[in-house]
Design brief:
- By secondary structure, the protein is an alpha+beta fold.
- The chain is built from 19 helices and 14 strands.
- The model has no long low-confidence stretch (mean pLDDT about 85).
Length: about 500
Amino acid sequence: MSTFLVNLTRFNGQASQTKIRLNWYQPPDTLPRNFRVGDTWQFTVKLKRPHNLANPGSFDTEKFLFASGIRATGYIVNDGKETLLVSHLKDQWINRIRQTLLDNMQHDLAGKPDAAFVYALTVGEKFAITPEQWQVFQNTGTNHLMAIAGLHIGFIAGLTFLVLSFIWRRIPRAPLHIATPLLAAFGSLVSAFIYSALAGFAIPTQRAVIMLTVFMLSVLLRRQITAWHSLALALIGVLSIDPVAVLEMSFWLSFTALSLIIFGLSGRFQMRGLWWQHGRMQWVLSIGLIPLTLLFFSNASLVSPLANAIAIPWVGFISMPLSLLGAWCTLIFPWLGAKILWLAEWSLHGVWAILSFLAQRPELSWQHLTQQVWLIIVALMGVLLLLSPRGIPCRYLGLFFIAPLIWFIPAAPLANQVWFTLLDVGQGLSAVVQTQHHTLVFDTGAKFSADYDMGQAVVVPFLRYQGVKQLDKLVISHGDNDHIGGASAVLQ
């Protein structure tokens, strides 16, 4: 099965401007195996409005599709009428470059165990990362490393700023014509735009570029503005361009992270060097983001500070520059690009070994239900109090504000009560029976692919939402896929 996004230009003979998501379950062998992005095709499709399975604790697919601008989903009907209408290099030329780079990397890194990470860091394609690898990233709190966003854009812009400043200052009389900070700021903006384009102008990269533009404009216009003013202007810019960004978790996580960095590091702590600042920043983010992490993912990694302290500089200063340099070299000097890509994959193999070791202890991953908004607000107040300057009295009272979040216990059936929940799994069946001390699951829904089944998508999130950490009984009525498909995920 293949899944891809389509810009719908004509539907039933009428002009249309809509983005849709299509599945192709069995593409005919007679069609080209590699479709080029930007090509215009004619298909017979069946479409439906996006809808979400109505289960507490599950991922809100309908909200995600709306925020992504996808107005319909469906699948291609194999009726033999598939026709390639137009194929021009000028159509989607940025994405065609991305596809060419990805093809080159897949050729040069074929068979390499960590090639998927190179694809993710270079062109933002995460299709090759396995569920087991995502679990390691989640258990160590480093899954943000594989999604090109503010951290990656910031690294590239910062490296460009430093390199251009170093070179420009050593050119005789050059700084007399153009000030070094102005040239470096402009160059860092250009590099950020190029990297964002290489990632397909994904929404997180757009947000990062807008924020970086606001910060760099203060340098280019020679205006002194505070970090809080820059953050406020970036917030206005992001919401002006993309108002529905507030529906995305990444919006809240990124702006909260920046606010915490400014609050925790801006001139109120004694700076003792780059590594001390890096350690302080990891401490601030690890503590400050716990409430939102538990709200969005019901999971927080206790080894996240250590894992990020190792992985962020490793990936940012070594793996990511090598991946980008190697990908671009494949267009001009293929043999050199292949060698550099091998170095990039080898460097990622090293950091992956460390993350895998840290993720082996499941007790260091804290799974905790947090669905009460008042708990999050109170906990954030406690976090701000803990991260306050030394002059603020009673800072450690913030622990009392965080305590309700830690010891919150979800509601459960009382004695002599039975809760019966029939889960929405589409075609199929799954039900959960709870008493005061026991939980039974009857059937687990269907399995649709190696990466998607109702057990992982519906049953397990609901059990976590209810605070259930161990099942007492799992009953499978019979062996049809729509009853047994999700069993392995529930057992795991």
